[in-house]
Amino acid sequence: MSVVSWPHMRKHNYEASLATASIASAGILGVMIPPSVVLIIYAFIVMESIPVLFIASIMPGLLLALLFMLTIYILTWLNPRLGPSGPKVSIKEKLVSLTGGSLETIAIFGLVMGGLFAGLFTPTEAAGVGAAGALVVVLARRQLSWKGFAASLSDSTLTTAMILVIVVGARMFGHFVGITGLPFLIAEWGVGLPHPEISVWAFLILSFI
User: Fold this and answer.
1) In this structure, how many other beta carbons lie within 10 angstroms of the beta carbon of residue 32?
2) Most buried residue among 48, 80, 147, 170 by CB atoms closer than 10 A?
3) CA–CA separation, 103 vs 10, rounded Å?
């Protein structure tokens, strides 16, 4: 997102503060709105249904996206220099612009998510279908070079290795927590506090910080 969005926002004279904040906050949407790699990892760790998590995250993700848009609208309304208005674009031009790649993206997304929720294939198979669909699109558009293909394989390898390290670390941490009985000790300690509710909340907030 940084590589794609940052140059265009700076090209249109967006303030660096708004551009970087938008990119950073939008990363959370990638976690919440399906298909989310983070949700798949979480589902694998806690042995939860991936489709159920995907369905549960749709509305919070859309609500968060709406709040982000509202926040940016208010900020730019109060201070137009943060994000200057671009040239006016007609409805026809907007519809024509969809043929530049958006339709293919929507089609692949619909194929992957539709097949997943319909039970036609597993999440792993859905990932393969999505990758195959993207490959077909770039081949049809003649946009795939050997250099780009090698770069995509390199990025995929790095991402896969990162995910595996996270999963292994989570498994080890979960095993450690289970052996030590840490959750039960914390629960007993929280119940024994003079003001359990407030104290536990304060402890959790400080732990996150």
Assistant:
1) 20
2) 170
3) 26
Which residues lie closer than 8 Å to 134 by C-beta, 6 or more apart?
Answer: 108
Residue 126 CA neighbour count, 13 Å, CB half: 23
* Distance of alpha carbon 123 from alpha carbon 35, whole angstroms: 10
Write the single-letter amino acid at 176. F
CA distances from 198 to 144, 195, 207 (A): 57, 6, 14
Reported as a single tens digit per residue, the pLDDT across 39-96 is 877 887 777 888 888 888 889 889 999 999 999 999 999 998 888 887 788 888 877 7
For residue 35, cis peptide bond before it (omega within 30 degrees of 0): yes
CA distance 130 to 27: 21
User: Exposed, middle or buried, 34 (CB in 10 Å: 0-12/13-18/19+)?
Assistant: buried
* pTM of this structure: 0.56
Long-range (24+ apart) CB contacts under 8 A made by 40-43 are 40/123, 41/163, 41/166, 41/167, 41/170
Q: Which two tokens stand for residue 167?
A: 């999963």
How many angstroms separate the Cα of 192 from the Cα of each of 16, 28, 46, 74, 207? 49, 36, 29, 46, 19
Q: Is 87 helix (H, G, I), strand (E, B) or coil?
A: coil
